[in-house]
Amino acid sequence: MGAGEQVWIFDTTLRDGEQSPGVALTVAEKVEIALQLERLGVDFIEAGFPISSPSDFESVREIAGQVRGSRIAALARCESQDIEAALRALEPAKNPRLHVFIATSPVHMQAKLKLTPDQVLARIEASVREAHTHVDDVEFSAEDATRSEPQFLVEAAQAAYAAGARTINIPDTVGYAMSEEYGELITLLRQGLPDDAVLSVHCHDDLGLAVANSLAGVKAGARQVEVAVNGIGERAGNAALEEVAVALSARADHWDLCHGLQMGEIYRTSQLVSQRTGMAVQANKAIVGANAFRHESGIHQDGMLKDPRTYEFLDAASLGQGSRLVLGKHSGRHALRDRLERLGIAYTSEQLHRMQSRIKALAEGKRAIGDQELYGLWQEMAREKTGESRGV
Ligand code: KIV
Ligand code: ZN
User: Is 171 in the pocket of ligand 1 (CB under 6 A)?
Assistant: First the structure.
């Protein structure tokens, strides 16, 4: 995409995304997703919050040992025990990043932290300095930044910069900001910090504005965007990686910015995250939903047949969606292989053969087998196999 300045893609699917209610990934699943994020080309993978649980610690350590193409970040509160745990988990990483955070809004400082603004500034100073004595790359986040007093937020960001943080993240923690306001806040911070500070955006979707707000931040000068695949995350979720990435690349004429993602891996990544987290992607979800490139009405179909540019400006194939070969009772092995590969499902030729017979039987009297159904079938076959080997 565009030849302009680089926007760093910081993926938090495995940290904020995993905080989605009801989601609990195993260490092996997190490693599998991290390896796919590496193939996708994200710059940073926030692999977890090591102090929060032994399994978070272990996942960060495993991912830090196995992933080389993306930099690995771990989260820590502004507390020594958190920083020490994050540092231990990051030991195997090639280019570790320590991400420290503390809240800066009046309600968080008073009700949750029970600290005065001066005490919060002192914590930022001490924690960023402590982190920076061990790793070069320190990111600081001012939790609930958008409900913080703007001048205090600037002071907090300056304190973090002075102590060694070069990435300053401005989370809209509760998804409260309007896009214009958020852009203005980023402008204010841009003016208050030296040029080598990278401003980062981290927006939640409580008002359905996470992607719009992230882009408003980029417009105002932020050069790191924190995202999660399929927009998963606390409550209504985070800004969706695929939406931010496609907005930047499909409208490169508007942005003149670049990012390093392999766009052909977008769909496979989305499917993998959906399958492993158990969080379905809604059919009308932008970019990766089942209906995102389908056309139903006669007028639209007529336009598409005459010239696909009438109703599509994005190329589904370039996002890894490929042509939608229908899987039904008449379809062959090529279509099944194509679909399994697009979904990131590994198979042996024996499994392919068995799956094909099951699809033929299932598709009798039906129009087609969808992705979710195919995945369900694959899981069912895997369970049968485990049952067989246990003699059940
Ligand atoms: O939303 C938030 O404030 C966060 C921070 C910990 C970065 O996730
Ligand atoms: Zn968050």
Answer: yes
